[in-house]
Amino acid sequence: MLSFFERDGERLQCEIRLSSHAAGFDLEVKTADGQRQLEHADDANILALRWFELEERLKRDGWVKST
Fold it and tell me: Number of structural domains, the chain?
């Protein structure tokens, strides 16, 4: 799953994917300047909760989901 967020001319790319290095899933957030934050979850339910928390925090901080 790939999602994009924008705020004040900035853009974030958030990707959820199967992990290529371990069992489970990765959640990666990339900024326009190339910085990356990677989180790993072994369980899909835990990942779903983490995604919900991240999406809510981004919205509170003024980020808007874009296409």
Answer: 1
